[in-house]
Every structure is written in structure tokens, then in C-alpha cells.
Specification:
335 residues, alpha/beta, TIM Barrel, 8-stranded parallel beta barrel, 3-stranded antiparallel sheet, 12 helices, globular
Length: 335
């Protein structure tokens, strides 16, 4: 039974929660093993971690870690949950999520709506998922930019013992001024502080948890070169290219083009790949890249891998193609 026509009649945010609850129900009833094909093992080792396959779930779909086991059972090579902030926050007013089916695109201005990192970690500790788990951390909307690093330090400290890697989200367009943390001395101070804290936590916990930086697709060439240099200088473990875009040129005069927020899905693919290629040229294999943005087919994923990515993440593509997209990519990619 195809539920997608019904789900697409619902408000996008309502449909999002309904889909996840249905997924959790099928998992609890042990129906997911019947409904989802068993995927081949295509292991890759990146950042010292071994992934069962290189296709992950991008942050944003399971912000609070409520559905870890159900999502893990689908066959992803890794899951990234969050973005989570130190304190709970409601996010931006609704409506804040918009589908553009004719473009296979989504605009969101969710604003890091989440129940706080303590709630997320409770869910992580209750989950039985054994795969690679990334935790994506951000700042609270009302934390002054001058103290933004304190929020990231708080998230890093709390998540360290539970995560396989930790992503620093400094590129969402939906928290005021957040993206300025990617610029000039701001990003240098942030990376220096977080890297030092990572060393202290490694000594304390006796394990190295990789730090990954998630960047925007709207960076200029010089900004990309600057960030790449800092990733190398501070020995950052990985980088995600990219987050959503504030550009609208790829959707023309669509009625929703004027909605504020980040655009994801197929229209993002070209620009995110441009950033990926530029990063790959600067990093020359010394920092692994996780590609995200506009992956809606196995060919799209292969294009990202061929452009220099070691891993890929999907999200918006799942909304329009369902879990069959995951199977198509894992079966279709060449490593």
C-alpha cells in the first residue's frame, strides 16, 4: 500500500511526525524486516570508524533521537541525529516547512526545534542500535553570538561519551547570525577551542571521538579556501558539505520561493557539489568529506563520491522517494 499520496495531503510537519511514528510502529511489530530489503554490506573506514556502507541519514530528520532503532533498521551505514542544543527550544513559528514536489525540494526554517541535549542522550542510552551514530550540536537561539562557543562546548562535553562522531553545525540559515561563525577569526577561535576540548575529553574518556564541521553551500571561493586551511591547521576529523542554501535561483519564480529558510533537495545538488569539489581540491584527501545536498538517486550519490566524498547523507530525497532510495544507492554505488 502506497501511503505517499495520503501523506502529501497533510501539512508537511504533521506528515513528518506521522511517518516517523508509523516507522516506529512497523519496527516494534517487527514488520520492517518484511517490508525492507536486506542491503549488501559495502564497508568503508573513514575517520577511524568502520561504516557498514557509505550512505547515512543526515541530521534534521530525527532531532531528538526518538527513532534511532527504527531508522537504524532500514540499513543506513550511519545515522546523524540532532541538531540538538544545550537547552530545549521550540524553534520558529509554524508554518516552517514547505514541500516543492515539482522540484523535489523542501524549504525549512525550523530553527533548531528540539527537546535539549539531555533528552536526546536519554534516548541514545535507551536505544539498542549498534551502528555508527553521529550527534549534531548547535547553539540556542537566545545565546549571544559572543558566547556561542560555550553552547558548543556544552554540547561537545555531554555528547562525547555517547557519540561515534560529533558534528558542529555552524551553517544553518535558520538561527540568526549563526553562519557568521564560518567567517574570518570567528571560525578560527571556535575550531581552536573545540579541538583543545576534544583533546581533554579524549584523555578523560580514553577514546577519540571525531569532530566534524558542517558548512554552508553559499560560501565564496575564498571562504572555502579559508575554512579548508583551518580544517588542516587544527586537524579537524571531517567536514560535511553542505547544509541547506538561502539561494533561490534554482527554483525560479515558484510561489514558495519567497519563503524564508534553507532550500534542500534536488535544486541544491549542483551548488553543493561545487563546494565539495573545491574542498576536495584544497584538502587533497587529508580531511574526509561527507557529502549532503540534492542526492535523489544512486547516480547523484556516485557523482558526490567521484567528486571527492568518502561518505554521503540523504534526507530530502527520502521524502520524495521513500526508503527505496536508500536501497537504490547502496546497491548502485561503486566504491
Amino acid at each position: 500500500m502506497n501511503l505517499y499520496p495520503l501523506l502529501f495531503r497533510l501539512d508537511p510537519e504533521t506528515a513528518h511526525h506521522a511517518t516517523l511514528k508509523l516507522l516506529a510502529w512497523t519496527h516494534a511489530a517487527k514488520l520492517d524486516k518484511l517490508l525492507n530489503p536486506k542491503l549488501p554490506e559495502k564497508p568503508v573506514t573513514v575517520m577511524g570508524l568502520t561504516f557498514r556502507n557509505p550512505v547515512g541519514l543526515a541530521a534534521g530528520l530525527d532531532k531528538n533521537g526518538n527513532y534511532i532503532d527504527a531508522l537504524g533498521a532500514l540499513g543506513f551505514g550511519f545515522l546523524e541525529i540532532g541538531t540538538v542544543t544545550p537547552r530545549p527550544q521550540p524553534g520558529n513559528p509554524r508554518p516552517r516547512l514547505f514541500r516543492l514536489p515539482e522540484h523535489q525540494a523542501i524549504i525549512n526554517r525550523m530553527g533548531f526545534n528540539n527537546a535539549g541535549i539531555d533528552h536526546l542522550l536519554e534516548n541514545v542510552n535507551k536505544a539498542s542500535y549498534q551502528g555508527i551514530l553521529g550527534i549534531n550540536i548547535g547553539k540556542n537561539f537566545d545565546t549571544p553570538m559572543a558566547k556561542a562557543v560555550d553552547d558548543y562546548l556544552a554540547g561537545l562535553r555531554k555528547a562525547y561519551s555517547c557519540a561515534d562522531y560529533i558534528t558542529i553545525n555552524i551553517s544553518s540559515p535558520n538561527t540568526k547570525n549563526l553562519r557568521q561563525l564560518q567567517q574570518g577569526d570567528e571560525i578560527r577561535r571556535l575550531l581552536e577551542t573545540l579541538k583543545e576540548e576534544q583533546r581533554l575529553l579524549q584523555d578523560r574518556h580514553g577514546r577519540h571521538v571525531p569532530l566534524v564541521i558542517k558548512i554552508a553551500p553559499d560560501l565564496e571561493d575564498e571562504e572555502i579556501r579559508h575554512i579548508a586551511g583551518l580544517l588542516l591547521d587544527f586537524e579537524i576529523d571531517g567536514v560535511i558539505a553542505t547544509n541547506t542554501t538561502i539561494a533561490r535561483d534554482a527554483i525560479g519564480d515558484h510561489p514558495l520561493a519567497g519563503e524564508a529558510g534553507g532550500l534542500s533537495g534536488a535544486p541544491l545538488k549542483q551548488r553543493s557539489t561545487v563546494v565539495l569539489k573545491a574542498l576536495a581540491a584544497e584538502l587533497n584527501g587529508r580531511v574526509p568529506i561527507i557529502a549532503a545536498g540534492g542526492i535523489c538517486s544512486a547516480a547523484d550519490a556516485q557523482e558526490k563520491l567521484d567528486a571527492g566524498a568518502s561518505l554521503v547523507q540523504i534526507y530530502s530525497g527520502l521524502i520524495f522517494h521513500g526508503t527505496q532510495l536508500l536501497a537504490d544507492i547502496v546497491n548502485g554505488i561503486r566504491l
